[in-house]
Amino acid sequence: MKSRLKKTKRETKETYAIEVNHVTKYFKVYYDKPQTLKERLTFHNKNKIEKRVILDDVNLKIKKGETVALIGVNGSGKSTLLKLMTKIIYPSSGEIVTHGKLTSLLELGAGFHPDFTGRENIYFNASIFGLSRTEIENRIDKIIEFSELGEIIDNPVRTYSSGQYMRLAFSVAINVDAEILLIDEILAVGDQHFQEKCFN
């Protein structure tokens, strides 16, 4: 029985990159206690804590090598699920298991210092992802080439447009040996040419 369980776990680890098992996420919304008579009459039911459910018993298995898109209306919990996968936040119940090194592009500018140049931020950001200085130096030309930023790579990133920021962030992310790459709507700020290049 034990050997069968071990075999099942090993097969699961080899097959799946991400497993989302019965995940529920809710946030507590705190309402201020009414201070005046008018507020008490108007907001008589708001002096309480409300539980707002964002995700309810979500189950998802993503195989290694698969590309999966989360589609839904604004506020449906797509970004929340991605943050749960990256462990920025944690589920209220259930579990998420990832098999492999994970990197993410969820918010534009996250992991970059606005006063550093693009080149300096490559070192800064890639080191956050676990690369040594030698590894970064071996890959920096490839990162800059993919970003197509040219001479502005040596300008402070606070002078970059949203599209240029995205180019730099994506170019670093795909060169840090990650097995799992999670992307929110960050690619939406890029031009069509670079978007197609990223998807390819």
Automatic annotation (TrEMBL):
Keywords per UniProt: ATP-binding, Nucleotide-binding, Transport
Segments traversing the membrane: none
Chain ranges of the ABC transporter domain: 55-186
Keyword Repeat in record: no
One of the record's GO molecular function terms: ATP binding
A GO CC term assigned to this protein in UniProt: membrane
Family the UniProt entry places it in: Belongs to the ABC transporter superfamily.
The protein's name: ABC transporter ATP-binding protein
